[in-house]
Amino acid sequence: MDDPLIERARDALAEAYVPYSEYRVGAALKTADGTVFTGCNIENANYSNSLHAEEVAIGAAVSAGHREFDRLAVSSGVRDGVTPCGMCRQTLAEFCADDLTIVCDLGDSEVATYTLGELLPETISASTLADADARGETEPPHDAEESS
User: Fold this and answer.
1) Which CATH number fits domain 4-120: 3.40.50.970, 3.40.50.880, 3.90.1150.10, 3.40.140.10?
2) Global pTM?
3) Annotated binding residue at 49?
4) Active site residues
5) pLDDT per residue over 66-92, tens digit each?
């Protein structure tokens, strides 16, 4: 039997706007209370302004007041086991613990399962920044200022 969260991710990719890559991605993010938010990729002619399915889903969840998450499912139109990209992993790390389960669709009821910590070890976090600030490392090195 297929995972219901994967099914929601598959449904979401139907709405993807992908006129440039034609690579559809859908994501379904389950909150701690069981609410599911979906997202699809939304491309832009200026590629850097494109939105990824995972960030659309987490943006919708956070906008609705959710801050605790249970699982994320990701699917592409070709069922290739796509994982969240580095940028999406960092966005997830802002709101999710290292043990967030990420399920990636391989098709035919097959999935690859990871934790966020496996996909993004040694993430940059609020504590990373606080530790750097406590050590006085938030200012640029003196030689960097001199070379400009």
Assistant:
1) 3.40.140.10
2) 0.84
3) no
4) 54
5) 999 999 999 999 999 999 999 999 999
